[in-house]
Amino acid sequence: MNGTLVQESPAPAMSETLEWKFSQVFGEKTVDEEVQDVDIISAVEFDRTGNHLATGDHGGRIVLFGRADTTTDHGVPRKDLEQMDCLPTRHPEFHYKTEFQSHEPEFDYLRSLEIKEKINKIRWCQTANGMVFLLSANDKTIKFWKVQEKKIKKVSHMDATPTHAMRNGPLIDSSTSNSCKPCMKNGASIPYEGVQSLHFPVVVTNHETSPVARCRRVYAHAHDYHINSISNNSDGETFISADDLRINLWNLEISNQCFNIVDVKPANMEDLTGRTYSVLRSISC
């Protein structure tokens, strides 16, 4: 049979190949390097937009990342974008934002049980006014966190000039400066001339901002078994927490009360059938 053999050229390789690697800790680790148990990542969660990433580890810490390439044009001119069928593909990049200690190790004296600080679950909540909110849970306790950008204040220098030090507030009332001497706690006094020679810090507020995390609520003492799930409701006000046998409904603003909505604990523990995961699937409430 006569024919022509055509050799097909190989398909062009992608300029940036996404390479997957398995790692349970941050940073590059050598084969011989020992990994600390507290550094092992135990929870990973994206928010709904995909622009924020939170991770939790065995040490009870939460690390937040923000997506750096949030623009859609990727630096391509608008004229060229209009002629394209699809936008050029680019792997997302996440930059470190902040980290904070979410949970500490505890001890339940009633049950003689050690509660580890390991983060089991993280859930992002609705954002408001540029602030992000998230829930974090270990085996027994859930915490509600608020993270917002705050301007950085730091001491620029130690100023010895009285007029410059006045920026942080007057040292001594001018009407009493000649008649009164500042006193110390032990009763000793300092001459006014000595006050003028003291060095006071000058605090300057920079235009730079830094994320600061603050715990708003702590939801505790509601589960006899280890928490395996937390899930937000679409109303932005409530969430559920679940262990193997019970599911509780919480209000984000009320930490001392919850409602038990599911209890599957059998009368005979030999017939035990546990639940390993629970989630809310509501779209609108």
TrEMBL record:
Q: Name one GO molecular function term.
A: protein phosphatase regulator activity
**Keyword Repeat applies:** yes
Nucleotide-binding listed as a keyword: no
Ranges that cross the membrane = none
Give the keywords, sorted: Repeat, WD repeat
Quote the InterPro entries the UniProt record gives. PP2A_PR55, PP2A_PR55_CS, WD40/YVTN_repeat-like_dom_sf, WD40_repeat_dom_sf, WD40_rpt
The family database entries (SMART domains) matched by this protein are listed as: WD40 (SM00320)
> What is one Pfam family matched by this protein?
WD40
Instruction: Spell out the family assignment given in the record's similarity comment.
Output: Belongs to the phosphatase 2A regulatory subunit B family.
Name listed for the protein in its UniProt record = Serine/threonine-protein phosphatase 2A 55 kDa regulatory subunit B
Origin species, per record, is Lupinus albus
Q: Lineage, please? A: Eukaryota, Viridiplantae, Streptophyta, Embryophyta, Tracheophyta
